[in-house]
Structure prediction request, 1063 residues.
Amino acid sequence: MKSRSISKTTRSNFITYGIVIAAYLIMQALIAADQVSSLLNGLLVPLCIYVIMAVSLNLTVGILGELSLGHAGFMCVGAFTSSLFSLCMEETLTSSMIRFPIAILIGAAAAAVMGLIVGIPVLRLKGDYLAIVTLAFGEIIKNVVNVIYLGRDASGFHFSMESTLALNMDETGTVLIKGAQGITGTPKDSTFTIGVVMVLITLIIVLNLIHSRTGRAVMAIRDNRIAAESIGINVTKYKLLAFTISAALAGVAGALYSHNLSSLAATQKNFGYNQSIMFLVYVVLGGIGNIRGSIIATVVLTLLPELLRSMDSYRMLIYAIVLIVMMLVNWSPAIIDFRKRHSLKNLLGKAARKEAR
Amino acid sequence: MKRMISLGMAAVLAVSMTACSSGNSAEETTAAAETTAAAGDAAETEAAGDDAAETEAAAGGTIKIGGIGPISGGTAIYGQAVMNGAQIAVDEINAAGGINGMTIEYQFEDDENDTTIAVNAYNSLKDWGMQILMGTVTSLPCVAVAAESANDNMFQLTPSGSAVECIQNDNAFRVCFSDPNQGAASAQYIGEHGLATKVAVIYDSSDVYSSGIYEKFAQEAANQGIEVTAAEAFTADSKTDFTVQLQKCKDSGAELVFLPIYYSEAALILTQADSMGFDTQFFGCDGLDGLLSVENFDTALAEGVMLLTPFAADAEDELTQSFVSKYEETYGGTPNQFAADAYDAIYAIKAAAEQAGITSDMSVSDICEAMKTAMTEITIDGLTGTGMTWTADGEPSKEPKAVMIENGAYTAM
Amino acid sequence: MSFVSYLINGISLGSVYALIALGYTMVYGIAKMLNFAHGDVIMIGAYTVFVTVTNLGLPPAAGILLAIVVCTVLGVVIERVAYKPLRMASPLAVLITAIGVSYLLQNVALLIFGANTKSFTSVVGVPALKLAGGQLSISGETIVTILTCIVIMIALTAFIHKTKAGQAMLAVSEDKGAAQLMGINVNGTIALTFAIGSALAAVAGVLLCSAYPSLTPYTGSMPGIKAFVAAVFGGIGSIPGAFIGGLLLGVIENLSKAYISSEMADAIVFGVLIVVLLVRPTGLLGKKMSEKV
Prediction:
């Protein structure tokens, strides 16, 4: 009995990896055959980024059971730190194959530290209060990043929170972070292959965590904190662990994000609460706690507005309607019940039963 | 059950993927079919005059110009202006026989003022067969797209991307002034005309345009003997209440308040300054243009506001008047500086393409090479300036006009 | 003297947040859902007044009445179509649907009214109150907004505690299942909650745009989020909490702009919120929840 249940989860995990690898191979084959439009080609890296964001947020929302509305903030931290590193080391480390993995690690580490800083106070709260505090932290990160000025000249780094003038650099100085104008000129190191590798690593980390002793402890806390505590689970430790891992993975996505475009600035659109909510949409639509669902929902919802481009000004309107309808179809108890009764399996089963009679 | 859902979604995904990759080829076929139909069957009389002109022009083939900008989201106002302004120019040119006999095909894509979506829009236009890019509207997405267009060696002319980095590659040009240029020009104007020696600034610290101008202004102000008494910021997240910023400007004893911001916020600032009895000189840049066209705005509040703008919707010249009336007729509302920049951008493309002798069968890269040289050779009399020329680094040379709002209209100073 | 004037400005801003927060907290308290579309209902209310008063030339009173009717109907329809089918599903699912509704309303407004900013004519006829020899002034909008807040607060509290429908709301918020068993029409009660919440949104929209007269399809979203923060600040679900939370938020925002840094004001506001919630995890006036195993 036991061995069977383990093999079932393992099988499910391998299906998830398989889907990602198959999607990668198919896309590579299509690219090789020149069958992929530029639009889809350009979407591949963002897709990987959003998948990582959704999967890592699912760790917080689905597995840890806490609603986070500030996930984009961690992505922001990862994006800026990794981008800064690449910008500084571009001349010393010319090979992107060495520089980029280090940049990703730095992004992840910085986001993890931020996750720890945010997590310690936040995880004491519950429910909607926790959600609003994560939102607050996300907005603070975005706001602070917008007033940072950082430059480098012969005498080292200069930092200011006012303007580039206040940096007081000599003529050799270059401004690295320019307040609201952010960072420009990050090397374009993100590729689809690296993106997929990062997606796989994220999946391996998250899926293994879920099915490990730690993961079961985290889920025990989610299902009943007091009961978990009473059997000796260190609630704070496990909560922080899951939250920090989730933040670190968001940092990885941030690094991919900042190395995919040549301009990086913290705006409402990319690192604001709206974006955090968008990641939450991916998670909830795909099924809370369902990792494979998150991946599929992310891909569908990222492609949808692009596919609707022919609708011109009706694009976002249709997107909103589709989102509502998908939510109703996926979550409404009445509709789920209806689908159960009329599912293919059920109908086939009925037919089979009739024949048997 | 979960599996059913995932299966269903996977199916949707598969379908959308196919649609995504095959969509472009389908579109291309239609476009090609249209061209052949138009070119081959010139005898088949078309009823409308416009169509007839198009058919004639199609003898030289078509040229595909793509546009990118935010037409949804909080900055939709600017993207829509560019989309519409350019459309007017395209219609005029096509009606008059096109560029070198080529009909312009014009397609505008939404970027929601986001870098990632802007690149998606760019790729989507590439699939459509874009040969020349007129965009993007806002600075941050523009920098991101510029990197892509440089990579493809596609000619890019941004109507309003004003950050320095927008045109750092040699394939990119712009119609508007650069941010530092405007900041310096404003400080010089205030200094040289002795408008004030104590200046306060209210700017949007979360916006590239606004913070870019402010920074250069502060730098140049020192050279002009202007003292910046207060520099108050607001952000995209808190732009309803400006009373604190205004109060601090007032308390700092400023004789003039510099507003390097867009007109929607400026309208609020003026209203709030009025209700708190803060009567001072306001001075702005091209972002302030459009202030008078805010629907239902009490223009008496804007009385005496000065701005440096290349475009004034109520200018007397024939070009502006015909553009404004066409815009009002087709889209309703008065066009702002963004629409004018876009209109000029299309005409600049036309002039450069004619100069370079672009034909519709040239590759994107060849067009870009030819256009790059031609851009530096042309001179345009447009809505945003007469005798506009471009340097190889992509900057336009034109004079900003200082205007003052008097009796609800711009008056040249 | 400037401190007092910053304070007054903060109260003006805060009173608008408070008014919006009342609607948020009302819906949250009863239906236990974060209605992210609340800010956009506010925007629809403001547009309704704009169209009737400015475009059609009707008196402001007619505009406000019409806005209340439109928003109430809209609120009930949204509840019926988008939220009710998910009543038994995870609260997160409803949250996401609310975001969908928010996008929908914004884009409908964008298509109908366009992206251009419209300048809203204040519907408040009350003159500004001049104090200290004209050095300080409290605008008519602020006075009306605060009075409206207080009236709404008292009316809501009275309604909930004194009427049968209000008692039904309390019962539904405590325990839906038990309320149903007691013969309370749960669906009807929740629909009524949305009707009242949306009517409040209409009033808030009118006063928001009277005080800060700039109207775009995105006008409601940021004040909506701020008001949500205010509601949490005061203890979400608590009616006086929303009022106090709103006022405090406005004052903190303006004072930090004035005395610390105008660039960092957002960060400071959110920082204060975090500190308050860490000290009082259910907000200023929130009910302490006992934990059950």
Q: What stands out?
A: The interface with chain C takes residues 71-74, 76-77, 80, 205, 232-241, 243-245, 247-248, 251, 263-265, 267-268, 271, 275-277, 293-298, 332-333 of chain B (CB under 8 Å). Residues 1-7, 13-58 of chain B have pLDDT under 50 and may be disordered.
